[in-house]
Structures are given as structure tokens and as C-alpha cells.
Amino acid sequence: MFFYLLLVIIIIQRCVELFIAKKNERFLKDQGAKEYGRKHYLFMVMMHICFFVSLLVEVTFFAKSLSSLWPIWFSLFLLTQIGRVWVIQSLGTFWNTKIIVLPEATIVSKGPYKYIKHPNYLIVTTELLVIPLMFNAYFTLVCFFILNQLILAIRIPYEERVLLKETNYRTISEIPRFLPKLVKRSRLK
Fold it and tell me: Which domain holds residue 91?
């Protein structure tokens, strides 16, 4: 029962986030923002939908049970939710599931963005690990962790190039962060 309740809550949360993202997208585009990365965005959306389908199938049809370590995994999950709210609040109208960039905008450098370049991707990656771990869904964990890393290997450098080109990201990217740079600056130009 816990599994289905958690799954419903997460799906409702994602729907609310999509509503917020759509509202922010309309606002930003009205201000002159441009959308980038439509091709890989579709793959990202499909990956997330398939994650929930895979999780549902694996837990239901292969009779996966709640992990004995579920309190640890659930605590990490709750921390990711706090992080998710912190990210959305920090970015305000700039938060989106798509890459939507307002030219000449000043990059947000408050909240978690003071410490980590892409905290939302860290949060999503953590969720893709802890949710399956809660229910011993190891097939879903391995498959979607790998798929997510492949998508992020495309999305993060692409997003960085767009931000460097369209905003003051060049200045903000000089600020040291906890996580190292993924791509050398010379390759971004």
C-alpha cells in the first residue's frame, strides 16, 4: 500500500511541477525568452514516464517488497523533496523542466545555486536511485540510472553552452562550486 501511495504522491507532484513549468514558460516567452534542446527534452520526458512504468511493473508483477533499509532511502527521498522546493523557489519564474533562456538575463546564484551548478539534476539523479532502492527494484534502478546519465551527458553541456552564449553565465561560471566542471571551457566555445 505504501508503494502505491508514494507513487500517486510523486505523480501528483510531477503534474503540479509541469503546471508551474508551463506557467513560467509562458511568462518567460512573453519576455522574449527562447527554448532550446527540444529534441533531447522529448527523450528526457519519455525516460521519466518509462521510469514510473518500469517501477510499477517491477514492484507489482515481480512482488518486490519494501527494503529493510527503507527508512534510510525514504529519508533521502524526503531530503530531495526539500531540495526540489529550494531549487524551484530559488529560480522563481526561471525554473522550468525545459531549457528556456531569457537573453541577457542575470543567472540566479542564490539558494543551492551558490554551491552547485545544477542542483536539480543532482536531486533527480538521487530520486532515481532512492525510489527503486526503497522497494528493491534493482532492474529499474540500474536501467534508469544509466539512461539518466546518458541524457544528462547531453543536456548539461548543451545547457551550459546556451547559458554561456545568451546570459552572464560566463561570469557566474567562474565561481567555485562543490562539484567540478564537467567540460573544459575551451570545448564550450
Answer: 2-188
Predicted confidence (pLDDT) per residue in 26-39, tens digit: 999 999 999 999 99
The CATH number for 117's domain is 1.20.120.1630
Please state, in angstroms and as integers, the Cα–Cα distance from residue 37 to each residue in 40, 53, 157, following that order: 6, 25, 11
To which residue does cell 527503486 refer? 132
- CB neighbour burial string for 4-40, b if at least 16 within 10 angstroms, e if fewer: eeebeebeeeeeeeeeebeebbeebeeeebeebbeeb
Q: At 9, is the secondary structure helix, strand, or coil? A: helix
| Residue 36 main-chain phi, psi, to 5 deg | -130, 160
Q: How many domains does the chain divide into?
A: 1
Residues in Cβ contact with 29 at an 8 Å cutoff, skipping those fewer than 6 apart: 35, 100
Where would I find the H helices in 115-175?
A: 119-134, 138-166, 169-172
145 or 188: which leads in pLDDT: 145
Among 131, 90, 95, CA closest to 112: 90
Q: What is the pLDDT of residues 56-96, one digit of tens each?
A: 999 999 999 999 999 999 999 999 999 999 999 999 999 99
